[in-house]
Structure formats: structure tokens, C-alpha cells
Design a protein that fits this description.
The complex is a heterodimer of chains A (about 220) and B (about 325).
Chain A lengths: L3 E4 L2 E4 H10 L6 E6 L6 H14 L3 E6 L3 H4 L1 H16 L8 E3 L13 E6 L5 H16 L10 H7 L11 E5 L17 E5 L7 H13 L7
Parallel strand pairs in A: 3-4, 3-7, 4-6, 5-6, 7-8
Antiparallel strand pairs in A: 1-2
Helix pairs in contact in A: 2-4
Chain B lengths: L10 H11 L6 E5 L3 H7 L4 H21 L4 E8 L7 H20 L1 H7 L1 E6 L7 H14 L5 E9 L1 H17 L10 H7 L10 E4 L18 E4 L9 H47 L8 H41 L1
Parallel strand pairs in B: 1-2, 1-5, 2-4, 3-4, 5-6
Helix pairs in contact in B: 1-9, 2-3, 3-4, 4-6, 6-10, 7-8, 9-10
Classes of the chains: A alpha/beta (about 220), B alpha/beta (about 325).
Organism (chain A): Apteryx owenii
EC number (chain A): 2.5.1.87
Subcellular location (chain A): Endoplasmic reticulum membrane
Chain lengths: ~220, ~325
């Protein structure tokens, strides 16, 4: 049952979105949307989030190095809900977002995707917090220093609880840096740069996904 | 010198170098030298040849960096993940390392003349013992040179490095040298293998891949990342200039982002310290917002004591690391 919706001058059926996702050889499981521009746009970020979910990406994180999205979380959420309505219309319930760091439990109907809004404090500061917690345990003689290895530290981190490491980061803006986005978690993340998130089109978004689907990963071998 | 190609820039290279040097220059450049095997395939030679050419290209690139006044370079030579490769390839890479480190030790006069400090960063106990010994000799022999610095990441991943740093701090707590509340970003910085270097200003990865592959994840959070499609053995002076130009275009934005990050970090540390002082005063029965003189005095005292603990801990850590290398040298003597 195709509902045709007008989106930025183009007609998209809601069934089309999922088909687009399935047409790709591979889809990221966790997509990071990193904005390096000084003035983030709530409407454009909301579109990106909704496109990610519509296309079938299970985990989405949003980041800007000034923590603007995080501080104005509810504004972003409202914009996302609005865009969901506009872009997905009556099929809204199928694409309902679980707001991983919000208490909008009434929004959670049929969880397809999870969203986190992150800032620099979820990066190095989270690693430091985990280190402090471990050192507390050592001070209390409940652990010894040799207990700590890569896996133990990984499990002590909390900023991305329940999320796998990002497979793909779409980085928007002119700055050639991750600006503190989840340094621990991006060890194998593909980083694709786009010039701006302002007035971003679905075509540009999707072509980045196509680019990702084509890349070969050797895992050190 | 085998590790740093002799020679000066050509006239055209010098001309372009001077133009570039008019702008801000990176002080520390990191390289992910990717593409040796694809190069070997392209030229129909053995993989080992590709790696050997890769080393030659490293020597040439170090020369270009020095000519441009870039005095610190860090390279990703061998990842812990690379142990997963075929035995043949891993043995080949280990042999290459043996060859190159032995050569290095034969050229000690040259290293002294050019003041090259060699550091090898990684989980060295994972390597064959004889290579560990060669590395120890190279590191100890050049440890006091300071004209330029070459950091070779060997048996390295960033996650292992960060975990190791946290483990060292936990060791410090266990030894009674540190309090858990002393653990901070800046202390973690000082426990990494790279603690003697500033963060890289510029990270370059060749061969077209656009990922960090577990290399210097902590240190490059605010570095300029440049991904170039050229295969490493084909890297040219112009590729290097191109990367430096990208660095220059990003310079003010990155400077600004770094400064605001450090400011926020200082602010949060100050907040934590104030909270600690408040708690302390309450415990001692004083009103938390009472005497500002008493607050200030307590704050100074706590900060000074923490500084003292941290200095003691860092000295012990330095000692532990030197010990590790020295013990390897006496084994081979």
C-alpha cells in the first residue's frame, strides 16, 4: 500500500525507503552523524535521522563538538517526530524511534531504530570515568590492576550502552577532523565526508551509503 | 643513513616548500603507510618487495619532513591485528624489522650527528625476543637526542595503548602512589606510549581507505585527518605538500575547537575540585559556603598534594619503562 508523500518537491512512497536500503550490498548497523559546522540545523539533522531509520539503519547517533544538539535534545526530538509525520505519514508507527537517552516512553510503539545524541563528554571523558571507576575498585582491593584489558575497559564504557561501534560516520562541514567523536569506538569506522548538512538532499545522503557499501574492509589481515 | 634518505630538495621542491612554510606548519605528522601489498600486486612483484619499497618510501618521506622543518613523525608500522596475516607474511615483516633495526644500530654515528631520537611504541612483549632486544638498544642509544623524533608503532593498537595507560594508573593506585580521584584526561595523556610527544597536528593515511584502523585514536581526536588515494610506495613530495595545505586550511578551525575543548576540560576539573572542597569542609564541620579564605587555602592544598602524588607516580612509571629496556639490553650483552 503505497502512500505518496511530497518531500522537498519529490514524490517518495514510504515503501521505497526500505527498498533503497535493501538494494545496497551492505548497510551500516550504527551510523554516526557528525556535524563540524558551527550552526547546526535541527530540521536538516532530523531529516537525516529519519532517512537513516526509514532505510533500515538500526542505530543512529548524532554529534556536534559544541554539544548543541545534546543541550537542546527536546527541540531535536520534536523536529524528528515532525519529520517522521511529514516523510512517513500514515506508516509512522512502523518507524517509531526509541529515544535511547530520553524518557518519551509513549513514543515507543514498534521499535525499529534507536537514537543517541552525543557530545564530547561521551568521548574521552567517558573513558576517564571508566578508568576512575576501575581505580576505585582497585583502591577497595576488589580488583587488581592486571585485571584490566581491552575487553574489560570496553565493557566499562557507558556512553554508547547497547549500541555496537559505528560502522560509518557521515561527517558534515569543512573541518577535516572528528572533533572528539567517540575516539575509542571509531577504531574501524569508515569516515565519509560531505560538505554540509544544511539543506542536505536524500540523494547526497544515499550516495554516501552507496559509497560505504562499495568499500572493502580487510580487518588487519 | 638507511632510515632517513640523504639529500636535499630539488629547486622546485625547495621553492614550493618555502611557499608552504609561509603558512602554519605541522610540528608532528602521523602516517598510516597503507598500500604496500596493493602496490606489489599492481607491479607484479612479491608482497615482501612491496613492504621493502614501503620502507624506502618511509626513509624518503622522513627526509622531506626534515627538509620542511617537521621534526616529529609517528608511523604505523605493524598492528597487533596484523599478526592475523599468514605466517609467511608475518615472518617476512619480522625479518624486515630485524634487518632495519640492525642497520640502524650500525649507523649510530649518523643518528648522533642528526640527533634522531627513535621511539618504538606498542605491546613489545608480543614480539620475538631478539627484535625486542634490537629495539631496546635503538631506543636506549638515541634516547637523549632531540633534533628530531621518529616514533614507530610496532605491535600496536590504540585500544591496547589506552587500556595499558589505564592499567598503569590502576597500578599507581595499587602501589599507593595515586588516589582514584587523581585519574583525569591529562594524567591518562601522560600514561600513553606517546607521553613524550605533543598530539599529531596532521594524520595522513594513504591508499584511499578512510578509517583510522585503531591508530592514535586518543591523540588524533582534534587532528587534521587527510585521506589520500595514492599507494604508500608511490607517495611523492607533492602528496605531502597537498596534505600540509589541507592542514593549513583547517588550522584556525581546529585551533579554535581544541582551545574550547581544553577550556571546557579545565572548567570541569575546577568544578570537581570545588565539589571536593565543599565535601571536605562539610566533613570537618564547616559551613560549605562560609569562609572563602578557608576554601581557597584548602583548594590550594589539595591541588598541591595531587600534583605531588602525580609527579611521584610519573617518575615511578618512567623508571618502570626504562627498566624494561635496560633489562633487554643486559640480556643481549
Amino acid at each position: 500500500n503505497d502512500d505518496c508523500l511530497l518531500t522537498r518537491g519529490k514524490k517518495y512512497s514510504s515503501a521505497r525507503w526500505r527498498l533503497d536500503g535493501r538494494a545496497l550490498q551492505k548497510l551500516p548497523v550504527h551510523m554516526g552523524l557528525v556535524v563540524t559546522e558551527e550552526e547546526p540545523s535541527y530540521a536538516d539533522m532530523a531529516s537525516l535521522v529519519v532517512w537513516c531509520m526509514a532505510v533500515g539503519i538500526s542505530y543512529v547517533s548524532v554529534y556536534d563538538h559544541n554539544g548543541i544538539f545534546k543541550r537542546n535534545n527536546s527541540r531535536l526530538m520534536d523536529e524528528i517526530l515532525k519529520q517522521q509525520q511529514e516523510l512517513l505519514g500514515l506508516d509512522c508507527s512502523k518507524y517509531t524511534v526509541e529515544f535511547a537517552n530520553q524518557d518519551k516512553a509513549d513514543q515507543v510503539l514498534n521499535c525499529q531504530s534507536a537514537l543517541k545524541v552525543l557530545s564530547p563528554e561521551d568521548g574521552k571523558a567517558d573513558i576517564v570515568k571508566a578508568a576512575q571507576n576501575f581505580c576505585q575498585l582497585v583502591a577497595q582491593q576488589r580488583r587488581t590492576y592486571t585485571d584490566l584489558d581491552v575487553n574489560v575497559l570496553d565493557n566499562l564504557l557507558s556512553s554508547t550502552n547497547g549500541f555496537p561501534d559505528p560502522d560509518l560516520v557521515l561527517k558534515f562541514g569543512p573541518v577535516d577532523s572528528t572533533l572528539g567523536f567517540l575516539p575509542w569506538h571509531i577504531r574501524l569506522t569508515e569516515i565519509i565526508s560531505l560538505p554540509s548538512h544544511l539543506n542536505i538532499s536524500y540523494e547526497d545522503f544515499f550516495s554516501a551509503l552507496r559509497h560505504y557499501a562499495a568499500c572493502e574492509q580487510r580487518w588487519g589481515k | 643513513m638507511s632510515w632517513i634518505r640523504e639529500g636535499e630538495l630539488t629547486i622546485i621542491e625547495r621553492f614550493c616548500g618555502n611557499i608552504i612554510k609561509a603558512g602554519p606548519m605541522p610540528k608532528h605528522v602521523a602516517f598510516i603507510m597503507d598500500g604496500n601489498r596493493r602496490y606489489a600486486q599492481k607491479c607484479h612483484v612479491e608482497r615482501q618487495q612491496g613492504h621493502s619499497q614501503g620502507f624506502d618510501k618511509l626513509a624518503q618521506t622522513l627526509r622531506w619532513c626534515l627538509n620542511l622543518g617537521i621534526r616529529e613523525v609517528t608511523v604505523y608500522a605493524f598492528s597487533i591485528e596484523n599478526f592475523k596475516r599468514s605466517k609467511e607474511e608475518v615472518d617476512g615483516l619480522m625479518d624486515l624489522a630485524r634487518q632495519k633495526f640492525s642497520r640502524l644500530l650500525e649507523e649510530q654515528e649518523n643518528l648522533k650527528k642528526h640527533g634522531v631520537c627513535i621511539r618504538v611504541l606498542g605491546d613489545l612483549p608480543l614480539l620475538p625476543l631478539d627484535i625486542q632486544e634490537l629495539i631496546a638498544q635503538a631506543v636506549l642509544a638515541t634516547r637523549n637526542y632531540n633534533k628530531c623524533f621518529l616514533n614507530v608503532c610496532f605491535a600496536y593498537t590504540s585500544r591496547h595503548e589506552i587500556s595499558n595507560a589505564v592499567r598503569e594508573m590502576a597500578w599507581g593506585v595499587e602501589q599507593g602512589l595515586l588516589e582514584p580521584s587523581d585519574v583525569s584526561e591529562s594524567l591518562l595523556d601522560k600514561c600513553l606510549y606517546t607521553n613524550n610527544s605533543p598530539d599529531p597536528d596532521l594524520l595522513i593515511r594513504t591508499s584511499g581507505e578512510v578509517r583510522l584502523s585503531d591508530f592514535l585514536l586518543w591523540q588524533t581526536s582534534h587532528s587534521c585527518l587527510v585521506f589520500q588515494s595514492v599507494l604508500w610506495p608511490e607517495y611523492s613530495f607533492w602528496n605531502l605538500c597537498e596534505a600540509i595545505l589541507r592542514f593549513q586550511m583547517n588550522y584556525s578551525a581546529l585551533q579554535k575547537a581544541r582551545d574550547s575543548y581544553m577550556e571546557e576540560r579545565r572548567r570541569q576539573q575546577m568544578e570537581r575540585d570545588q565539589a571536593y572542597v565543599t565535601k571536605k569542609l562539610q566533613q570537618e564541620g564547616f559551613a560549605s559556603h562560609g569562609d572563602s579564605q578557608r576554601r581557597w587555602t584548602l583548594l590550594q592544598k589539595c591541588t598541591a598534594m595531587r600534583e605531588e602524588r602525580i609527579q611521584g607516580f610519573l617518575q615511578a612509571l618512567e623508571h618502570k619503562r626504562e627498566d624494561f629496556f635496560e633489562r633487554l639490553c643486559t640480556v643481549s650483552a
